[in-house]
C-alpha cells in the first residue's frame, strides 16, 4: 500500500489450486479460537455442553482418522465406532458456533481443512467435483461452517462430497445457519439437514447451541453513516480501500467469489461511499460472501450513504435467503462498530 486512495474495484486476483487449499484454515478472526477462550453464556447451558462435546470429539480425531478408516476397509472391518464420525452444531447466528468449530480444528490432530460451505462449493467449482474430492482426500478432519440448504444444487454437491469423505474415514464437523427463532416457520432444523444428507445422517451427532447474538449483546448503537470528510480521511490512510458502493457491487459480478478473500490481501480498513439498497438477489448474495470475508479478517468498515440496515429490502429479508442477509447485517454492523475513532 502506498498511502494513496486504493479501491477494491481495481483488484482482480488470480487464484491457483494451492492458494485455494492453503486458505482452508480458520480465518484470522478465529486464528486464536480455543476451547478455553470460548465463554459460554451462564443463562444458556447448551453452550457449555456443546463445548464439552466438541472437546471430546477433537481429542478423538486424528488418532486413527482417514488413514485408519482406509486400512479397516482393506481388512474388511467396519469403520464406525463409539464416537460419531461427525458432529453438527445447530443454532442461530452469533452464539459462538464458528468459534467452537475453529477451536475443534485447532485441537484436533492430523491433517485438517476448515472452510465455509460457500468456500467448499467454490473449490468444487474451480477444481471440478472429482478434483475437490481428490484435494481433500486423506484428511483426518474437515470442518464446514454455515452449511446451507438454500440452493438445491449446491446442497446435493456438498452432501455427496461429505459422504465420500466420510466413507474414506474423514471425520466431519459442521455448523448450520439457522435463524434463532424457536421452531417457527423458516427455521433450518437439524432434521432438515439430516434428511438432506441421508447417508451421512447416521454419522452425525447434533449439538444444539442456544442464545442471543453475542455481537450485539450489550453493544452500543450501531454508528450512523459516515460523511464524505470521514471517508476522505480514511482513503488517505495506509492499507485502506474506499469504493463507491454501486461500482463495488458491479465489480463483484466480475470476480469469482472464491477470490474475494484474495481481493482483501493487505487491506487494513474498508470504506464504502453512497451505500444504498442492493438491486437484486444476485448482487445481495455476492455481498453476503464479501461481508463474510471482511468479517473473517476483522476489517473495520466505514460506510456512508444509507444506513447498513437498509442494504437488503423487506422482500429479501422475508425470502428464502433471509438467514444469510441477517447474518451479513449482523457482521457488517459489528465491523462498523469496530472502526476506531481514527478511522471514523
UniProtKB/TrEMBL annotation:
PANTHER family per the UniProt record, alphabetical: AFG1-LIKE ATPASE, ATPASE N2B
InterPro entries per the UniProt record, alphabetical: ATPase_AFG1-like, P-loop_NTPase
GO biological process, one term: cell division
Membrane-spanning segments: none
Gene3D superfamilies (alphabetical): P-loop containing nucleotide triphosphate hydrolases
Listed name of the protein: Cell division protein ZapE
Species for this entry: Aquipuribacter nitratireducens
Entry keyword annotation includes Ribonucleoprotein: no
Gene name, Swiss-Prot/TrEMBL: zapE
Keyword vocabulary terms for this entry: ATP-binding, Cell cycle, Cell division, Nucleotide-binding
Amino acid at each position: 500500500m502506498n498511502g494513496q486512495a486504493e479501491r477494491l474495484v481495481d483488484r482482480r486476483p488470480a487464484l491457483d489450486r494451492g492458494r485455494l487449499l492453503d486458505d482452508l484454515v480458520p480465518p484470522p478472526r478465529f486464528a486464536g479460537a480455543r476451547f478455553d477462550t470460548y465463554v459460554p453464556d451462564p443463562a444458556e447451558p447448551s453452550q457449555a455442553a456443546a463445548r464439552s462435546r466438541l472437546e471430546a470429539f477433537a481429542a478423538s480425531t486424528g488418532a486413527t482418522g482417514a488413514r485408519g478408516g482406509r486400512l479397516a476397509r482393506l481388512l474388511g472391518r467396519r469403520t464406525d465406532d463409539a464416537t460419531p464420525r461427525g458432529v453438527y452444531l445447530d443454532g442461530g447466528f452469533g452464539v459462538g458456533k464458528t468459534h467452537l468449530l475453529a477451536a475443534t480444528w485447532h485441537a484436533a490432530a492430523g491433517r485438517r481443512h476448515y472452510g465455509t460451505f460457500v468456500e467448499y462449493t467454490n473449490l468444487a467449482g474451480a477444481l471440478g467435483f472429482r478434483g475437490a474430492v481428490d484435494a481433500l482426500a486423506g484428511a483426518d478432519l474437515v470442518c464446514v461452517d454455515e452449511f446451507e440448504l438454500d440452493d438445491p444444487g449446491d446442497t446435493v454437491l456438498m452432501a455427496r462430497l461429505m459422504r465420500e469423505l466420510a466413507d474414506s474415514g474423514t471425520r466431519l464437523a459442521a455448523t448450520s445457519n439457522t435463524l434463532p427463532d424457536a421452531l417457527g416457520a423458516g427455521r433450518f432444523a437439524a432434521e432438515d439437514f439430516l434428511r438432506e444428507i441421508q447417508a451421512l445422517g447416521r454419522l452425525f451427532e447434533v449439538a444444539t447451541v442456544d442464545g442471543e447474538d453475542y455481537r450485539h449483546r450489550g453493544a452500543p448503537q450501531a454508528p450512523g453513516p459516515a460523511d464524505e470528510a470521514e471517508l476522505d480521511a480514511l482513503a488517505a490512510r495506509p492499507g485502506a480501500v474506499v469504493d463507491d458502493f454501486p461500482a463495488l457491487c458491479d465489480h463483484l459480478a466480475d470476480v469469482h467469489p472464491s477470490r474475494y478473500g484474495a481481493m482483501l490481501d493487505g487491506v487494513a480498513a474498508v470504506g464504502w461511499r453512497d451505500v444504498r439498497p442492493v438491486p437484486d438477489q444476485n448482487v445481495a448474495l455476492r455481498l453476503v460472501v464479501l461481508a463474510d470475508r471482511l468479517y473473517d479478517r476483522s476489517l473495520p468498515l466505514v460506510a456512508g450513504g444509507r444506513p447498513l440496515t437498509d442494504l437488503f429490502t423487506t422482500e429479501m429479508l422475508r425470502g428464502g435467503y433471509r438467514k444469510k442477509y441477517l447474518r451479513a447485517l449482523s457482521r457488517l454492523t459489528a465491523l462498523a462498530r469496530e472502526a476506531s475513532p481514527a478511522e471514523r
